[in-house]
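Let's inspect one such protein example.
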Amino acid sequence: MTIRNRIALQFSLIVASILIVFSVLIYLVSATYRREEFYDRLKNKARTTVRFLIEVKEVDRELLKIIDHNTLTALFDEKVLIFDAKNRLIYSSVDDQVIHYKTSLLDEVRKQKDVETFSGHNELIGLLYQQNGRDLVVLASAYDQFGKSKLDNLRLTLGWGLLAGISITIGLGIFFAGQSLRPINQINQEVSTITARNLQKRLDEGNRQDEIARLAMNFNNVLERLQQAFDQQRSFVSHASHELRTPLAALKSEIQLGLRRPLSIGEHEDVLKNLMTDADRLIGLTNSLLLLARTMESSSQVPLQPVRIDDIVFEVKDELAGVRPDYRIEVDFQNIPETETETIVEGNEDLLRQVLLNLFDNACKYSPDHRAQVRISTDPQVCHIAIHDRGIGMSPSDIQHIFEPFYRAQNALGYDGFGIGLSISAKLIELHRGTLTVDSKLGTGSTFTVSLPHI
């Protein structure tokens, strides 16, 4: 079942239920009012008859019957019976018809003084009349032909009205559901035309205020991210191919040079050294690509546990100093942590070490004096590690792309590297629900700040 039909069906069922309840309520209320009104008329008739019989001396039974016969048009199939204290019938308004009753009904009337019940299709009331020490029971019965005829007409009117109302509701439900879902149909048609070849196409966002417009806006945002992902993928393949081709071409050239003519022992050593350099470059590039691929995996696969980020900073400093003795890294606390937990974060120690090692190495590599300053600071929510250098810096245009894979600033092309380290670092920090930001000026240095939520 389509959404349009489902909405129309639900709308029709709701409105039909309201109409049915409303119609039944009107009918029941009308039937109750008719019955109460008719019982009041029967009571008035019963009281009038017994008063004429008992209190008016000039009226005897025969005259009272004549009066009753002349008023039969008021109540259809009218009958009035009067009984004395011994349940003897002392008056009957008609001779050829009787009210079907039981002696227990007379006793009930004497007990309750007022009883409303039925006699077949007729309404029946019983009254206790007490006058001059006499206890008389009056039974009055009649059929409310006029009232029930009006109820029948009301029931017929409500039935046809209900049928017409439900029919109109179904039609309007289908129409308005179709009108409401028309923008979604348009979105479906537009989405069906979007493929990997035309990801730049965007949906019509309409008034940008209602739910359909927000759906189109969110879908356009998804398309924007998909387009960026495809562009990054194409850029990644292009740059990776270029980076791999360069050392492979160098390897091939060295091998061709070695095969072109006989070489001396010294020349063989030079060729082998060049081959070793190119092989090391290939190994480093391959390892970087492997690490980048791993960082793109789901964050749920990365085990996180409480680690002291300041301890990792000092460990990375000592590790880098052992590998590159010419590097100088100064570590200091910008403010003293108020609690011990302000430098404890939920993270993976190996991955955080990889991030800091890459940032420390870059800071020293691009600085003429191979020095870097590291400042650790904390606030009530976040622990910050700022790595500052006085190196070559970056232009604003380079800063916008610095975290893209294989991107390298123009002034950094003369340094060793593949342009992967910062991209890996940014993704690893993102896995730790943190941020990696950069503040840099061309020719004056850069400051990379790692911000991680602490425990």
About this structure: The mean pLDDT is 83. The CA atoms of residues 45 and 200 lie 89 Å apart.
